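User: Run a structure prediction on this.
Assistant: Running it now.
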Amino acid sequence: MKKFFVSLLLILPFISAGAQTIVTINTEKLLKSIPAYVAAQDELASLNEKYKAAIQSEVDEIEKLYNDYQQKKYTLTASQRSAAENEILSREKSTQEKEKIYFGEDGIMSKKSDELLLPIKEKVDASIKAAALTGGYAMVVDLAIAQSVVYSEGAKDITEIVLQIYDTLK
């Protein structure tokens, strides 16, 4: 209820201005209509699976080493146990580092996502802004992310207009 009142307070100045219009857009629907975005998502999903499989393979190997060690540790000398434990720890650390390289904040997946998706998102943002300026809209509410939108039946949806503008931008 509190979100409703906060949203109402934020929108009220635009409603009372009369000539200004609030419109909606659904970026989820918009992005799914852009072939380059769909292709980028597919490529990222494929890379994600590839890197996850590589990490999982190493985790499985480490588990096998650990289980073998657990079965044999009482028959090993102290130096053999220490060497086996160090190898397991070293492999775990190596796997964690690879996981960070693949999936970390500055990892391969993050960089590839930026490379593939940022140009599309910038073009979408430019298209939304162009549609808003051309139509004289005071506010564009994204229904895909706006959690406080309770009702939007009367609001004009400009998703298709933005998609048409997107297709014309270079």
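Residues 2-168 form one domain.
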